[in-house]
Design goal:
The protein contains seven helices and two strands, in the order αααβαβααα. It has 201 residues and is mainly alpha-helical. Helix 1 runs parallel beside helix 3. The longest helix has 24 residues. The chain is globular.
């Protein structure tokens, strides 16, 4: 995708126990990524893949105090908590409950991380890649929510987008294709010079 640097899980210094399919909790990923970046005076565009809300949704770690995340060993006892995936998946109702808890955890980790810089917070996009399986989500809808968080002066640039304030989009808000969102985002937050360069490529 044209990134200058890519850090797979093997290159991220997580020393805790693996949580089934999830290699490391989202909170650790969010706490660790900044230390992986080389010094650079220019702003960064960073994509972070969070996976704690991925199936099998067990175990779900607890939020740790941010100043105690360290090398991730604080999460090791949590790796053995709760039922095994085989036990959980015997009851689809339990699977649905666990999916909700996993999403709640990911939102807690993300939103508390975003809040930490305070007035120095960057512009942050929270984008889902797809919903859970139909029997978990209750539909085959392929739309995903997108949330934009940042300093008020930056967020004011999208006032004419007619987005919904808060976490739950209005039910009548029309879906926007991802390529259309990309173009709109670039047009809103890029200089004319950058847009001209992009259009030439």
């Amino acid at each position: 995708m044209g990134f200058d640097l890519v850090f797979p899980a093997a290159d991220i210094p997580f020393c805790g126990a693996r949580l089934n399919w999830v290699t490391m909790p989202d909170q650790f990923t969010l706490a660790a990524y900044a230390d992986l970046l080389p010094p650079d005076p220019l702003p960064d565009f960073i994509q972070i893949a969070l996976i704690s809300s991925h199936a099998p949704w067990v175990p779900i770690p607890d939020m740790a105090p941010w100043d105690q995340v360290g090398d991730g060993t604080i999460f090791s006892p949590m790796a053995a908590a709760g039922p095994t995936p085989r036990e959980l998946w015997k009851d689809y109702n339990n699977v649905r409950d666990q999916d909700r808890l996993a999403i709640d955890y990911t939102l807690q980790a993300t939103l508390t991380h975003v809040a930490r810089p305070g007035d120095n917070a960057p512009l942050v996009l929270i984008i889902g890649d797809h919903q859970a399986a139909d029997f978990v989500a209750g539909s085959d809808n392929r739309d995903v929510p997108v949330h934009m968080i940042g300093p008020q002066a930056v967020i004011e640039r999208i006032n004419n987008w007619e987005w919904t304030a808060g976490l739950i989009p209005a039910a009548d808000l029309p879906a926007l294709r991802m390529d259309k969102f990309r173009n709109r985002f670039l047009e809103t937050f890029s200089s004319r010079k950058v847009l001209a360069e992009v259009s030439e490529q």
